[in-house]
Amino acid sequence: MLAWEQARLDEVVADMFGFHALQLGLPELDGLRANRMPHRWLALDTAYQGWQPGAAGAPLGVRCDFESLPFASNSLDLVVLPHALELARDPHDTLREVERVLVPEGKVVIIGFNPMSSWGVSHRMGGLGVRSARVLPQGEFIGYWRLRDWLRLLDLEVEAGRFGCWRPMVRTEAWWNRLQWMESAGERWWPVLGAVYVVVAVKRVRGMRLVGKIRKTRLPTAAAPAVVTQSGQARAPYQQDVNG
């Protein structure tokens, strides 16, 4: 699953341009490695343990609450959230904070578990002793269409979405390899049942003004009507003399 997510992140962020990029959580995935923005950060929750600073060229580490990011409003060009909403204390506040720090036309990439997939069913059955559910995080899974509604309320317009990982959880790698056929079949016949999804959205700002030269076209002025008068009797404007 991590390999599929890393490949999708490399695809979507490679052509995103700007100066400042941020990843929220999950340092096991390097969501910004294929991006060329000069300033990159990796934000980890204050309760996260076990992370060590990366090598030269890796994103700078920042410890903070996802509901209160230490960045100015309208300052980031890209924010990547690999499963950050599922582990956030308040996913609504986290999304609102992401919208605040994004510049107009900035982009957000979100990865999440699909509650309608077989993995999502295993997650909901965790309390019944299903062993496969133990590998998933204990946070709330947010449905794909539910997430789109949240983004729409924040004026974050969805540009692209994709599902992946259709094989169910199994106990051995041998069975996992035998079910490889489900990946191509799932992408073709039941795409919305993939275990994980990737959503790309862009921040739209209403009432924006275009900056730049605007060509001003002058309209031709119409000639003012002439009033013809003569001694003795006044005639109306544009009245012609029928006598010559």
Summarize the structure.
This protein is an alpha/beta fold and 244 residues long. The chain has helices at residues 2-13, 84-87, 91-101, 118-124, 144-153, 173-178, 181-189; strands spanning 20-24, 39-44, 60-63, 76-82, 102-113, 156-164, 196-203.
**CATH-defined architecture:** 3-Layer(aba) Sandwich
Tally of helical segments? 7
- CATH superfamily membership: Vaccinia Virus protein VP39
**Average pLDDT number:** 79
Overall structural class, as computed from helix and strand content, comes to: alpha/beta
Gyration radius (Cα, Å) is 29 Å
Order of helices and strands: HEEEEHHEHHEHHE
CATH class reads Alpha Beta
Major sheet: size, sense and barrel closure?
7 strands, mixed
Percentage of residues in strands: 15-25%
**Which residues form runs of ≥5 with pLDDT under 50?**
127-133, 231-244
Relative helix content: 10-25%
User: What spatial form do the alpha-carbon principal axes imply?
Assistant: globular
The number of strands is 7
What would you say this structure looks like, in words?
The chain has helices at 2-13, 84-87, 91-101, 118-124, 144-153, 173-178, 181-189, and strands spanning 20-24, 39-44, 60-63, 76-82, 102-113, 156-164, 196-203. It has seven helices and seven strands; from the N terminus they run αββββααβααβααβ. The longest helix is centred in the first third of the chain and has 12 residues, at 2-13. The protein has a seven-stranded mixed beta sheet with strand order 3-2-1-4-5-7-6, with helices on both faces. The chain has one domain: 3-Layer(aba) Sandwich (Rossmann fold), CATH 3.40.50. The protein is an alpha/beta fold and 244 residues long.
